[in-house]
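Entry 14. Structure prediction run on the chain below.
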Amino acid sequence: MKKVFADVIQFRGTHYDFGFLQGEELKDSILIKNRERQWKVRKPLFKIDLNETKLVFQRLAPMIWEELLGLRDALEWPMERVLQEFGGYRVNINPSGCSIFVGDHYMIRNYDYHPKTYDGRCVVFQPMDSGYATIGLSQKITGRCDGMNEKGLTMGYTFMNRKRPGDGFICHMIGRIILELCSNTEEAVDLLKEISHRGSFSYVLFDSTGKLPYIVETSPRRVEVRQGYACTNHFKLMTEENRHVLDDSKKRMQVIEDHQGDGLSGHDAFRLLNDTDKGIFSKLYGSWAGTIHTSAYLPQELQAWIALGGDQEPTKIDFSKWLNKEDLPFKRLEGMVETDIPFVNMEQADWYR
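Output returned:
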């Protein structure tokens, strides 16, 4: 077992200033040094087109481009390097797991991935220029792997396949754009139909109305929309896009579906996903599919619950109080994860293994 942590980043201000602050904090950090080691052995399989990326951001989410400029100025990097690390456009993504369960007033999500990719950052941001305030776990600093905004819109995604990637945004930047631009599930569905998708993912969308969630199946080729309460790692509509081996995904889906009629409370649903003996939590860290965190978002109460590792009690965050200028009293979330693989925000990662 390894003790792990995620830093809690709180900021109210403009996107540029937020980017600059993050750049100052990241400069000379273990996370950046590990990323530098990564690029020495793992060559990027994508191309950065500075002008095209700038045009796309300025059309869709110009405020996030400002954040990228702030990172550039604080880190004193060329913009091409900023986009390679944090841009979220035209970037390949490795396979991962993830399970999502939505109840009548909550969305619970297991984030399953590889420790060497984990930012270890819970970000609470209230922009003063444009965009909704958000809370969520970051990925590649500027992206969000799950989260909720001030309107109560919640978002989480699950990986589907690596087939034929296209030019476009990757999942965590799409998640960030959804949370900052959309006030409800209908607006988020419209955005997912409009935006260009590099990879194939399902996005689960739930809001404070309590209506049946939307599950949007996306790929570089098309987008389909359905409604439901559970999502793992296979499409139900775009079945031609699925991987050949889906046993684990279907097993986790069956466990969730077996409990859907039980009327689980938010706490009981959290235990279903976070307890290591219930059949959903994964320890496959070396296969890019181990559960690193379990998060819950309660849109009607504007609360977030977050636990690192399994069999943990979540830290509960009252986002509504934070929106009313009451800062969170802690700077880190802590937990225990059963792996010896390094976490890039904590320790040197050997990319040759």
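The mean pLDDT is 94.
Filed with the rest of this week's runs.
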